[in-house]
């Protein structure tokens, strides 16, 4: 841990801010929502790594690890969430990175949202989610991960 | 984390474990978060193995195609079995310190390749085109055995030339049709290329731009301090044309540095600069601290017009240095 004096010194360039990966999973080009969320997180002080569209589960999992993010945010509007999201979770486990929380945003039927949460997705944001609620939840998840990982 | 755990982590990272590489990089990328002894132990170990990687700096204005070209360069280097790391730097907001980093988008095709590691870094309040801990991350990647470390500077303005302090080879990307030979004669960014790359070569203006650059480069005195005469080439990163030839010139430049004994000089310069950028950042943070909030007696005098800015800063400096 940094000393109290070091904290007071600022040194933002040598300190970690919360890092979030925002990815569009699968064959889905509808990226407006993902960009709006990414921008809102940026304005809330997060470091957002944006992967763009048409990402495979492998790309998402490995990018999340390479970037050492605190939260993975997946946007999916194609309807393929039940096929692709579990695969992201599986790969994160395979790489020993199951501690990185995954949140989903998109057009997800509520019963699917429950199933996704049951298999380990931390939160599912449906189309009516306010940005403030997304930011708050992502911050809470990031905080929790940093506390347990130092 | 104790010594044993540090060594175990380094061993796993050296053997190629993705998670361990990434964890190590994070520790040295955010050194103010960790125990200084841990940082020292990690860096001593890794720097003992390093000094071998070829660091390639890529600079140019925003939107010129740096990320797209780097992606094609990675493919080319991977064909030659090199292990490649990329540090993609994007700006932090000066207001919120948040950042939107999009360098990966163009390189995602390589994210599943175990021979490629890509890390996005925000500038985090540092000017000049790099982050304060860029050199720490380069040293770590070097120690982990990456052959090519490509540093994509933040989309550069005319004087963002810090990348010169860390790179063996500098690619300066130029936009076709953006200015005439007068732009090419300007100081700053145009002084630092080892290879000038006119990207978007599929555009009709590209040939003229290439001609203008070649013309200016042919003036006497354009040699780099190593004696290398800068080269110019036209590529289209999107189409992939010219990239093989470009990578050939990059290897030629590396060979030139090795033959002339300059390779090691760059490593030395980079390490010294690495300490400078960190120290500068810490001091700048202290200066900011002094002026924050109510401020000291001197700041109040300054506000009341009882002391001038120059005299005030000398007095503050004396106090900072304990004189």
Overview of the molecule:
The complex is a heterodimer of chains A (150) and B (323). Chain A contains 6 helices and 5 strands; from the N terminus they run H-E-H-E-H-E-H-E-H-E-H. Chain A has helices spanning 4-8, 32-43, 57-66, 81-94, 110-118, 131-149; strands spanning 19-25, 47-55, 71-76, 102-106, 123-125. A 5-stranded parallel beta sheet of chain A has the order 2-1-3-4-5, with helices on both faces. In chain A, strand 4 (102-106), helix 5 and strand 5 form a beta-alpha-beta unit. The model of chain A is unreliable at 1-8 (pLDDT under 50). By secondary structure, chain B is of the alpha/beta class. Chain B folds into 3 domains: 1-49, no CATH class; 51-261, P-loop containing nucleotide triphosphate hydrolases (Rossmann fold); 273-320, no CATH class. Chain B contains 11 helices and 8 strands. Chain B has helices spanning 3-14, 18-29, 36-49, 66-79, 134-143, 181-184, 206-217, 243-260, 263-291, 297-303, 309-320; strands at residues 54-60, 84-90, 99-101, 116-122, 148-152, 169-174, 195-198, 231-234. Chain B has a 7-stranded parallel beta sheet with strand order 4-2-5-1-6-7-8, with helices on both faces. In chain B, strand 7, helix 7 (206-217) and strand 8 form a beta-alpha-beta unit. Chain B is globular, with a radius of gyration of 21 Å. The chains are: A alpha/beta (150), B alpha/beta (323). The interface between A and B is large, with 40 and 46 residues. Strand 2 of chain A pairs parallel with strand 3 of chain B, so a sheet runs across the interface.
């Amino acid at each position: 841990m940094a000393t109290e004096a070091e904290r007071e010194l600022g040194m933002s360039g040598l300190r970690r801010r919360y890092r979030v990966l925002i990815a569009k999973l699968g064959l889905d080009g509808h990226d407006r929502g993902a960009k709006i969320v990414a921008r809102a997180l940026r304005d809330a002080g997060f470091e957002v790594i944006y992967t763009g569209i048409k990402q495979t589960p492998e790309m998402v999992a490995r990018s999340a690890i390479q970037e050492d993010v605190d939260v993975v945010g997946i946007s999916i509007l194609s309807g393929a969430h039940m096929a692709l999201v579990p695969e992201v979770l599986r790969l994160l486990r395979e790489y020993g990175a199951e501690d990185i929380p995954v949140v989903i945003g998109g057009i997800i039927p509520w019963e699917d949202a429950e199933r996704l949460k049951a298999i380990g997705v931390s939160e599912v944001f449906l189309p009516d989610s306010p940005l403030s609620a997304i930011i708050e939840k992502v911050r809470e998840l990031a905080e929790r991960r940093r506390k347990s990982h130092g | 984390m104790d010594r044993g755990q540090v060594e175990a982590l380094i061993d796993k990272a050296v053997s190629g474990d993705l998670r361990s590489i990434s964890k190590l990089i994070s520790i040295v990328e955010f050194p103010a978060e960790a125990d200084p002894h841990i940082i020292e132990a990690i860096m001593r170990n890794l720097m003992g193995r390093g000094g071998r990687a070829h660091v390639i700096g890529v600079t140019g204005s925003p939107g010129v195609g740096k990320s797209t070209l780097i992606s094609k360069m990675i493919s080319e280097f991977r064909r030659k079995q090199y292990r490649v790391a990329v540090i993609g730097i994007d700006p932090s907001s000066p207001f919120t310190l948040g950042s939107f980093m999009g360098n990966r988008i163009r390189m995602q095709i390589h994210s599943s390749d175990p021979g490629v590691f890509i890390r996005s870094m925000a500038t985090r309040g540092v000017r000049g085109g790099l982050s304060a801990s860029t050199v720490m991350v380069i040293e770590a990647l070097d120690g982990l055995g990456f052959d090519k470390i490509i540093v994509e500077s933040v989309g550069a303005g005319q004087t963002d030339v810090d990348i010169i302090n860390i790179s063996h080879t500098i690619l300066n990307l130029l936009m076709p049709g953006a200015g005439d030979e007068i732009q090419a004669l300007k100081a700053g960014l145009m002084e630092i290329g080892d290879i000038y790359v006119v990207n978007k070569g599929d555009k009709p203006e590209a040939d003229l731009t290439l001609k203008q650059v070649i013309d200016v480069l042919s003036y006497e005195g354009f040699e780099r301090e190593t004696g290398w005469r800068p080269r110019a080439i036209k590529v289209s990163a999107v189409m992939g044309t010219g990239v093989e030839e470009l990578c050939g010139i990059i290897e030629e430049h590396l060979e030139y540095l090795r033959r002339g004994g300059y390779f090691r000089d760059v490593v030395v310069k980079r390490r010294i600069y690495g300490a400078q950028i960190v120290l500068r950042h810490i001091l700048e943070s202290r200066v900011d601290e002094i002026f924050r909030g109510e401020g000291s007696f001197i700041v109040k005098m300054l506000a009341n017009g009882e002391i001038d800015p120059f005299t005030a800063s000398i007095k503050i400096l004396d106090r900072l240095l304990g004189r």
